[in-house]
Design a protein that fits this description.
Blueprint lengths: L4 H28 L8 E6 L10 H8 L12 H9 L4 E9 L3 E8 L2 E5 L3 E4 L4 E2 L14 E3 L5 H15 L6 E6 L4 E6 L4 E6 L17 H18 L5 E5 L6 E5 L15 E4 L1
Parallel strand pairs: 1-3, 4-7, 7-8, 10-11
Antiparallel strand pairs: 2-3, 4-5, 5-6, 8-9, 9-10, 11-12, 12-13
Helix pairs in contact: 4-5
């Protein structure tokens, strides 16, 4: 075979081409690691139609310091994205290279909806996140949500339903609690505590809920529709708690009467409304 001139020339030419390619690759790698291509700037910009309210250059710099490797060519954009998404208040980050030495980072900021359990918040997408609540604006008042891990989306869904039902009464939800047994308790802006009972559709494999159980929305609807008539009969007396777990009505716990005021017929300490 080695006496075949064509085969010998083909092998020689192939080796020569491979040598040239290897040299070019080595040159590219060498040039790519030169200080000329060191990242000179990182630009932050908000996602379209949004502003950066909580994320600042200082907060980003404090997190990414000593966690960023590579230059303009060698930086791993996926790894860099994960670093930026570890910055408090950053929900999503997308990165692109801008010649000759800039990374432009587009930030989608967290939008806080409520406080969650002891030290987290829930955003408007129903996701839990951790950030410093002290950075909220002084006039920001967030409701308090609590529940088992993994139920954030369900709590946000039920909160939206409650907000819709109580809006005509000029009331809003101040606290919403979901127990490990999927029982709900809500505190309204007027201090009224609602015992809503178990959610028949929250933990049941049947999407229609537990047979015979009153749907969550039906309990709320019944209470909201009756509330104006109930208030008119209380003669200004406050209600501290409402138990909506009854199949045919709800029970009320009335606030104590001021000292010396006689108790009227409509001012019993608890009542049942059908």
């Amino acid at each position: 075979m080695w006496n075949d001139a064509r085969t010998t020339n083909l092998i020689a030419n192939t080796l020569a081409v491979l040598a040239v390619v290897a040299m070019l690759a080595a040159c590219v790698v060498w040039i790519g690691h030169r200080p000329y291509f060191t990242l000179a700037a990182i630009e932050l910009e908000p996602a379209p139609d949004t502003d950066l309210h909580y994320v600042s250059a200082e907060s980003v710099r404090a997190v990414i310091a000593h966690r960023f490797d590579g230059n303009f060519f060698t930086v791993n954009l996926d790894e860099a994205r994960e670093v930026f998404e570890s910055v408090p208040w950053v929900r999503r980050a997308s990165i692109r290279r801008i010649w000759p030495g800039t990374l432009r980072v587009q930030i989608e900021e967290e939008q806080p909806l409520a406080l969650w359990n002891e030290n987290q918040m829930i955003n408007t997408w129903g996701e839990a996140f951790t950030a410093n609540t002290g950075e909220l604006d002084d006039d920001t008042e967030l409701p308090q949500f609590s529940g088992p891990e993994g139920t954030e989306g369900l709590v946000v869904q039920r909160y939206a339903e409650l907000a819709r039902w109580f809006a005509p009464l000029d009331l809003h939800v101040r606290e919403l609690d979901l127990s490990p047994r999927y029982a709900w308790k809500a505190t309204l802006s007027n201090g009224l505590v609602l015992d809503l009972g178990r959610d028949p559709g929250a933990d049941a494999p049947d999407p229609h809920g537990v047979p015979g159980a009153l749907p969550f929305a039906a309990r709320i609807q019944r209470f909201v529709q009756a509330w104006p008539a109930v208030v008119s009969r209380l003669e200004g007396r406050g209600v501290t708690q409402a138990d909506l777990r009854y199949p045919n009505g709800f029970a009320l716990a009335l606030a104590p009467l001021p000292e010396g005021q006689p108790k009227s017929k409509s001012s019993s300490t608890s009542s049942k409304k059908r």
